[in-house]
Amino acid sequence: MADQNHLTAADAAATNESKNEMPTTYDPKAAEQKWYSYWTEGGYFRAGQRPDAKAYSIVIPPPNVTGMLHIGHALDFTLQDILIRTKRMQGFDTLWLPGTDHAGIATQTKVEQKLREQGISRHDLGREKFLEQVWDWKDKYANTIHEQWAKMGLSLDYSRERFTLDEGLSKGVREVFVKLYNKGLIYRGKRIINWDPAARTALSDIEVEYKEVNGHLYHLRYPLKDGSGHITVATTRPETMLGDTAVAVHPEDDRYKDLIGKTLILPIIGREIPIIADEYVDKEFGSGAVKITPAHDPNDFEVGQRHNLPQINVMDESGTMNEEAGPYKGQDRSECRKAITADLKEQGVLISIEDHVHQVGHSERSGAVVEPYLSTQWFVKMQPLAEAAINAQKDGNGVNFVPERFERTYLNWIENVRDWCISRQLWWGHRIPAWYSESTGELVVANDEEEARRISGLTDLKQDEDVLDTWFSSNLWPFATLGWPNEDSADFKRYYPNDVLVTGYDIIYFWVARMIFSALEFTGEKPFSDVLMHGLVRDAEGQKMSKSLGNGVDPLEVIEKYGADAMRYMISTGSTAGQDLRFRWEKVEQARNFANKIWNASRFALMNLEGVSFENIDITGELTTADRWILHRLNETSREITRLIDSYEFGETGRQLYNFIWDDLCDWYIEFAKLSLYGTDAAAKAKTQSVLAYVLDRTMRLIHPFMPFISEEIWQHLPHEGETITLAAWPEYDAALENPQAVAEMNLLMDVIRAVRNIRAEVNVPMSKKVDLIIKASNEETLSIITRNDNYIGRFCNTSSFEAGLNPETPDKVMSAVVTGAELLLPLSGLIDIEQEIARLEKEVQTLNSEVERVEKKLSNQGFVAKAPAKVIEEEQAKQADYSAKREKVLARIAELRG
């Protein structure tokens, strides 16, 4: 026999020749290893094998090659896999394209940290040798991610895997840059940007995390040059005052009208600075006077531009004070703050210091406090791109957000977006396709150096040292991965636009918005039809998972302990779209128990399907009530599961699957089926075997997208056609299987069995002890159902005698229960204490009184009656009649017992 970890289709078929030999317990590890190898080697995940089918595509949000995948990735990827597996079974030509992201600053930071532990820096190695180190890192962690994808059971088309720095994507990035530059939408300029002094690189606005910090507000006195007084200003960062070039007041502020145009003396430095008027100032806030530091504040920069103020940068790239800081040169910015505060106090210009809680920007990657910093960088003009995206959304041609509320979040951001700083002072990433003449400084933007030389006629060219923001390349992901900018690419024509993007709500600005405006600009189409936003995975207490808290969960640990199917089922069905998920180990254990329930039920069924082949399965003809009922419930469940998956309602999908499999199939149908399977009627047995095989086959198909491994393992033992469940047809709704009569009959039978079991439990009569049962039917139809199915009632109520009628002879002393359409009577002799039974019935009356009162109150509410649909009112009226009838019967029983 072939190695079980590398099964071919023939090996798998041979392995499962004996369909009835399933192990006693399910072994997740063995199944996962076996079937993933089988799927990938069989090429079952590859797109393009159904050229005549409708295409359905998803490109994976590429994980960063910075380390291991976390439980949030597991949620994200599992939801995508559910969609892809479902659509593949529905006959679509599905593409789920895998890939990874070079992740710019995040990856470079990791590699630099590793080098520091060896006592060296990237500068010791030089750019080329350093990049070799980063590529080694990338290869290592890309392989790790591959292994994790396999462990999770993801049905990815590895033949189309991409990386954001591979040549195809790099070509697309260069083309986008050049086109945007030539269109005037990319420019190079000196502006205030977010600067990470630890990583020594620019950051975009959305790479800055704002944290609440307990700081101080420093109130300072700036004296007028003519000695006539002073102006009071306030700042949270006194070290930046060294770069002040003006104080601004509102032009209509009467307090300062006579001072506009006068000169102040900047404390410490002694520089003369003007008092200017600008409507930016809020005259109602504080003193109404604002210090202007154009090189260290984005708003001050704009004011400075309007008033032609000098820009004085007082720090270097590491956050250390430079020569413009005078006596504080060489001090770290935090040291300078302490020193300058002391000096201001000594000079008598520090009025007061008050506690002040405010939001301070921190680098998302290094954690350093971000410095607003005047720097020459590359920018994208966002307004024209944003307008196209906004118009598409408002014209009804935009992306469908799920949940819908995220559309407003998206529009709020893109309507107020600022120009995007896209250059990074890193070595790892897409090098900016711009060259400078070393002799003249002339700038040339081109796809490569050869083109730059050709269009400029220059030979002494040196490429820009900076790289592009990682999001500049990843925002091309939906189309660049499919062959763009070659629009004749077969994959681009076939699979673009994508059908859905599945991602967390936390990167709606970073990535989702940018993909949309880039796609509209360069392909003329939205990149995907739907965006499914899921929440974060939090710990059991609702806290965000983090290394510092030590509350993170490794998906491989979950898989090792409970199996991939249990993890997938728990995380995919544990919350609704857009809501955070609390990870609880007990929930994973419950999912594992669910998998075991499926296994045990299937194992029992297979032991009773000896001789059944796929060809002789026949669910037509004379069937039992239970057979007809389970086919109806399967059909109903198939329709609902299809609708729910299409609506991305995975939580409700999980509930429906669980209820059907655990309750309907395992707890009821399989128990009922035993009567035929163990009986002497060969025809009835054959029909039930067919129904059982059919229902189990379809059930495995329904659960397969959620639990791929156990469903494949069981399906391969069942009578089936085809090589793998991954390609088996999805269960479609079949009107011929609708059977409301069977549902009504089964509901009555289940009510009777539950009621008898409840009576037994109340008086501690074990199921092993036989009882006498009398059923008093309220009408002929109910009596007919009971009579036709007396074998079920006798078996599952374990009766020694059983009588049913419209008015059967009733002993004086009985225990009773009421179900819709019938009264159940169990003779008391030897079973119960009569007074206890009266007390029990009186409690039941109280419960029914409450139900009747609740319904009557609702029906007497004119507001409810006026607004509720007719069907809802009819349902409430039916409940009222049902509860009232039950109450009357219970009251009658109490009277009988007391008589």
UniProtKB/TrEMBL annotation:
Residue runs in coiled coils: 831-858
Span of domain Methionyl/Valyl/Leucyl/Isoleucyl-tRNA synthetase anticodon-binding: 627-774
Enzyme class: ligase
Residues of the Aminoacyl-tRNA synthetase class Ia domain: 34-583
Keyword Ligase: yes
Motif, 'KMSKS' region: chain positions: 544-548
Sites where the protein binds ATP: K547
Top-rank lineage group of the source organism: Bacteria
Keywords from the UniProt entry: Aminoacyl-tRNA synthetase, ATP-binding, Coiled coil, Cytoplasm, Ligase, Nucleotide-binding, Protein biosynthesis
Protein localization: Cytoplasm
One GO molecular-function entry: ligase activity
Pfam family, one: Val_tRNA-synt_C
Annotated spans, Disordered: 1-26
Subunit record text: Monomer.
Family: Belongs to the class-I aminoacyl-tRNA synthetase family. ValS type 1 subfamily.
Function as written in the Swiss-Prot or TrEMBL entry: Catalyzes the attachment of valine to tRNA(Val). As ValRS can inadvertently accommodate and process structurally similar amino acids such as threonine, to avoid such errors, it has a 'posttransfer' editing activity that hydrolyzes mischarged Thr-tRNA(Val) in a tRNA-dependent manner.
The protein's name: Valine--tRNA ligase
